[in-house]
Amino acid sequence: MIRKLLVLPIIALLFSCNMNRPESLQEGVWRAELQVTEAEVLPFNFEVTSRDALKIFNAEEVIMVTDIIYSNDSVVFKAPVFEGYIEAVVKNGKLNGSFIKESLDRVVPFSAEFDTKTRFDIDSNTPAVNMTGNWETVFSPNSEADRYIAKGIFKQEGTKVTGTFRTTTGDYRYLEGVMDGNTMKLSTFDGAHAFLFTAEVIDSTMSGMFYSGNHWQEPFVAKRNEDYELPDANELTFLNEGYDALEFTFPDAEGYEVSLSDERFKGKVVIVQIMGTWCPNCLDESKYYSEFYNNNAEKDIEFVALAFEYAKTKEKALNSIQRLKDGVGIKYPILLAQYGTSSKSKAQEKLPMLNHVLSYPTSIFIDKKGKVRKIHTGFNGPATGEKFTEFKAEFTGFIEGLLSEK
């Protein structure tokens, strides 16, 4: 009788655990929405390939997600490298929850529905305009403080539109959407940034709004201009008068202080990367630099990254750095230059020889004698297509020139 009494609680416990066993995400394509305003949602698609893996799609970009945790009736998943994560309740083939970035105290309502393959719903299958081409763009055109220029680069096939906006500090990565009559709608979600662009396009002009999550929105205007070019990225950041070299000392992940005067950098070409683990353009650049570094390990070249992190604690900042290194396979040092803020003015205080830190990322090219030879602001990543190809050719040629010097 006592043995039966012992068995009954165990059976009850097993039954209870089975009742609370989290429901797996159904395999197949889902349509997700982030509520950026009361009236506007940012859609994107992802495909669940197994209980422990899914893919997020943005035009040609496919982001593999394997960091998935089930608990009771909820699921948490995050894209590689970045801090942000989605937490949602799974019920009846639907998800309801939030996209969360803890260090910035940002929460965006999230929902998703299974077996919905379209990204944007459209009212018209006949686009009134073809967006293909280059667009001279101004964001926040009526605000002197917030105004900045950009170049829109788009390709349209039927109602589908892909492309990006290039700015002087980088690009908005892979945008995907539709032309619905006269209305353009574009979005991207990569686990760090959630961007939505909407605009009315009439003839060769465009007027719209840009939403970054639910914390920022601004107007933009654009006009067709196939010959439009942004200012030279090599002329936006420079050394202040009286300086011809860069100096810094920051700790690496193990706490060791690293300086440009260290033996490992002497007599070598050095690329100093000003970046943050939270920055998608920095991730694109880090992937390229890591591949270049690994392919040229036998040459007199070194890379060193200075991470300016908004994580609230040193421990969290170092964890983010290690996650980036592991996720990309970076073998060059990433130093913790700052945590608690990603302020560019605070970053400039750490590097007073620069006229400013205009962009994450920024790359500083140093020759074998320790002299700064070029500073490149921003990064034109793979979403920019031809511009990315041009950048890689320019980068390789410039490095080869520095390596050939005595």
Order of helices and strands: HEEEEEEEEEEEEEEEEEEEEEHEHEHEEH
On the 0-100 scale, what is the average pLDDT? 93
Rounded to an integer in angstroms, the radius of gyration calculated over CA atoms is 24 Å
Identify the overall geometry: globular
State the CATH architecture of the largest domain: 3-Layer(aba) Sandwich
Write a concise synopsis of the structure shown.
The chain has 406 residues and is α+β, with helices and mostly antiparallel strands.
Task: Give an overview of the whole structure.
This protein has 3 domains: 20-114, Quinohemoprotein amine dehydrogenase alpha subunit, domain 2 (Lipocalin, Beta Barrel); 133-224, Quinohemoprotein amine dehydrogenase alpha subunit, domain 2 (Lipocalin), CATH 2.40.128.120; 249-404, Glutaredoxin. It has 5 helices and 25 strands. The strands form 4 sheets. The protein has a 9-stranded antiparallel β-sheet, with no helix packed on it. The protein is α+β, with helices and mostly antiparallel strands. The protein has helices spanning 2-19, 280-295, 314-328, 344-350, 386-404; strands at 28-35, 41-50, 53-58, 61-65, 67-71, 74-78, 85-91, 94-101, 106-114, 133-139, 148-157, 160-167, 170-171, 175-180, 183-189, 194-202, 205-212, 216-224, 249-251, 257-259, 269-275, 301-308, 334-338, 362-366, 372-377. Mean pLDDT is 93; it is low at 1-8 and 10-19. 18% of the residues lie in helices and 41% in strands.
